[in-house]
Amino acid sequence: MKKIFALVIAIALTLALAVPALADGEDAAVFGTELNLVANDPTVEYDEWDVPYNVWNVIPADTKLNVGDTVTLALSYTVPAAVEGYSERMLSSIEYLTSVEGIDGLTLVEAQGCPGKMQCDYEHGYCMPIPGEYSNVAVEGNVCTVMAELDSDVTVILRGTLTAETVVGSTSVTIGQYRFPAQFSLGTVDKSEANGLPAYNMHRSDFDLVQKRAVEVRADETGSYAIFAGLNNHYYRVVANDSAIEAFIPVDEDFADNGEAVADEERVATLTSIVDEYKDFFGFTYTQTEFTDATFIGDGTHDTFELSFTLGGNGEPAPSAEPSSEPTPNPNPVPATGAVSIAVAGIISMVGGAAALLNRKRK
User: 88 lies in which domain range?
Assistant: First the structure.
């Protein structure tokens, strides 16, 4: 059998991308997703402002690749500005989870259309981009997670070394995959009134938008609670103070030593009470009639669509699965990723205006 790898999948549903809303929520879930094998070296082109950008060229079907070769994959999708069949709240978190077998050392090369990750110095009042890092993309092991945003056209470039003649993988697209808190940004807030309810607006010039996929709530011997949030593959401790971030406070190497873990069955009430107590430090643009536990913990009404692909082998693409009828548990191989760059009124948007950060790699 020849060791020939070819593009064998181009999963593109019929999406009327020219119009702002799609006709069918089931079709919308895939968003024209494609996973392509591309050349390792891109073509450099220039935009109208003479800024260079990479064009990744799909490898033709007769390209011969061998075990040990370096290969490059391109995950691409287009999410429209609105999607019928889903609430704004569900659309506040669209997760792409792509895993591959047969490639070792999967790394992120670039993510076109994704917001860059920022590092902010709140003491001196400025933020700087971190080269090569993105706020809504994370790669760990053989898994790439992207938190997609509405009205976005994205291409994520991944690279690794072939360890098998056939590369098998899958991409799951989950609409409504979130846990407390959904989206929030680190920065300061202004309190205002909206529709007779408390609302908080973020200063977009001073924040680092992140998506939190895991949270640890711990209680110390005094009965006080602390939130340890996994963000962008690091742990951060959310610390309340009077009005804004004053300093970056280190997180202990083993955060688990900071008090006792709060049991899962107690978490909802605990998180609600924490946010109620610290509401001046978390920004909300959520206009439901009341502030409830369901604001933070999903009610299980999310849809997951599975897309399978094969590179090499017999060249036959695997069929796409129908959306799951039951809530699909998050495999959570990347406990903390970057976030959707989105701040839409009517979607939870939490501003950790009282957060102190120190990066620590999550094991």
Answer: 21-116+134-178+299-329
Question: How many other CB atoms are there within 10 angstroms of residue 41's CB atom?
Answer: 10
Is residue 104 packed enough to be buried (19+ CB in 10 Å), middle (13-18) or exposed (0-12)? middle
Whole-model pTM: value is 0.56
Note whether residue 244 is domain-resident.
yes
101 close to 38: Cβ distance less than 8 angstroms: no
The model's pLDDT over 108-125, given as tens digits with 9 standing for 90+, comes to 999 999 887 766 554 555
Q: What's the CA gap between 21 and 82, in Å, rounded? A: 5
Residue 53's pLDDT band, with cuts at 50, 70 and 90, is very high
197, 165: one domain: no
Q: How far apart are CA 258 and CA 251, in angstroms?
A: 9
CA dihedral 180, 185, 187, 191 (to 10 degrees): -70
